[in-house]
Amino acid sequence: MGSSPFLNEVRASIRLRGMSLRTEKTYIYWIRNFIRYNNYRHPRDLGPDEVMTFLGYLAAKRQVAINTQKVALNAIAFLYNQFLDRPLGDLNFTFATRPRRLPEVLNISEVGAILRSMKGRDKLIFSLLFGSGLRITECLRLRVKDFNFSQGTLVVRDGKGGKDRVTILSPSLQPAIETAMSEALALQQLDNAKGIGPSLPGVLGKKYPSAYRDPAWMFVFPSTSICTHPITGILCRHHLHDSVPRKALKHATADTNMRHRRISCHTFRHSFATELLKSGRDIRTVQELLGHYDVRTTQIYTHVLGNQFAGTSSPLDFLAV
């Protein structure tokens, strides 16, 4: 089904609109699921009723999270509203909600224990996740040009929702980052000698054919192997795959006797947010640093902190009784 002429046409339409490869994969996944659910009937023979039934199935039978339901709806809405030019109209669909599980967070000493059990590249990756509040894919996509040591900032490009944002960068990481950059740029020079370079966003490679030689575009965490770009078909070096730091984290949590906790790469981003709020940073600032569209998403961390929120104590604590 993945190589069907219809899905290939949808894929080409997504690329024509300049959407990210990640969005492309997600949309194709949910459109394929929608077609399979309807016994491989062509989407032109389906409509709003079938869309509503499919979304209801996701909520009731598969019990997917509300955000997953929204992503599935976005994919199908693209299929009908833009690709088929058959707008679905107002579906008036009510997303099924489940009680949201509070995120797992680590305190400072626990983060320190995990980082001390790591070395080199792995330690730097998780230091950035915790120190700058990055998602793992955002971290691995960082390029040399995204760091500004003089201002203590880094730019996250094309984050979730296709947004760019600026977040904080700990000065203590500069030596490790510069070492990683030097190693990456040495690798780029070897690649350039073979006519190869880092994978480039969008149509940048066509617009600037020699951009792959520019050190600014080199990934700080490059892959160990060469691959064929899925869109352009050009040989290039992509960034490190996220399975690598996940394996490193698994070993680290085992070494620190935390293997039974639900600790993932995203836990370090959660911990970044809670530590900022605990130290008194206002929630709007934390929202901006995390790149949340809605402050209500950020507010989940206030529930994690409880009475430690924003360094606030109960007024009863100041009353002698």
Automatic annotation (TrEMBL):
Domain Tyr recombinase: from-to ranges: 101-314
NCBIfam families, sorted: integrase_gron (TIGR02249)
Entries under InterPro entries matching the protein: DNA_brk_join_enz, Integrase-like_cat_sf, Integrase_catalytic, Integrase_integron-type, Integrase_recombinase_N, Integrase_SAM-like_N, Tyrosine_recombinase_XerCD
Database matches in PROSITE patterns: TYR_RECOMBINASE
Residues in the signal sequence: none
Name of the featured protein: Integron integrase
Source organism phylogeny: Bacteria, Pseudomonadati, Pseudomonadota, Gammaproteobacteria, Oceanospirillales
Superkingdom of origin organism: Bacteria
Keywords, sorted A to Z: DNA integration, DNA recombination, DNA-binding
Pfam families, A to Z: Phage_int_SAM_4, Phage_integrase
Family named by the database record: Belongs to the 'phage' integrase family.
Entry keyword annotation includes DNA-binding: yes
